[in-house]
Target: CDP-alcohol phosphatidyltransferase family protein
Amino acid sequence: MSKLPKEHKFLDLSDYGRPVARFIANALKHTNFTPIHVTIGFIISGLLAIYCIIQGYYWLAVFFLIFKSILDAADGELARIKQTPSYTGRYLDSVADIILNALFFISIYFITDTALLVCFLAFLGLQLQGTLYNYYYVILRNKFDGDTTSRVFETGTPVALDGEKQKHVNILFGLYTFLYGAFDKVIYKLDSNANQGDVLPKWLMTCVSTFGLGFQLLIIAVMLVMGLKAYILPFFLVYTIMVFVFIAIRKVFY
Model:
């Protein structure tokens, strides 16, 4: 199942790794590898990227950051190919992402003279950006009967799907709400009527996709190898302004 019907797909700048992700998923289709195994793979890749950042191996860090992004897409692709969607995988993916994001920023703080407050605020900005992207994207997917494992409003523990345990869903949903709840509430407060508005145009969704984690990791990777490591955290802090710009555009025109 595709995330969106063909006629409503947009250029997702954060999804550049999708072709390779599909290749990996197809290669694993008839194996015992599960989407959870692939998620564990991207966690390992992310940790290796952090190690390389701290050690100054920036080109290796780029490889592992991009590979992490590819595997982050591959786990969902494998779930769709094997027709084994799960809330366990959905929440494990998200919990792993936010923890790795925090560690990415801490590692960049460690190798630069950036103030700790800037690091903290930049991380909050990064998560708000990603939350807005996911909010608009999930609304779009739900409107057109796309992949609905993700929900517009994560207000209650979902019932486990076939092949997963309710206990695992409960634990991971609890972690998800603890780590993401505040960001979800802020974005909802800023644009609570988004799901009642018009379908967002493809150009706007493409712009908002710069908030997607894949694109965020690409920015980090490019800035590392360009010798701009000291500007990474300030960039994400300042770029958070665009959250309010995109919401304003959505409210005024759509």
About this structure: The mean pLDDT is 92. The first helix runs from residue 18 to 27.
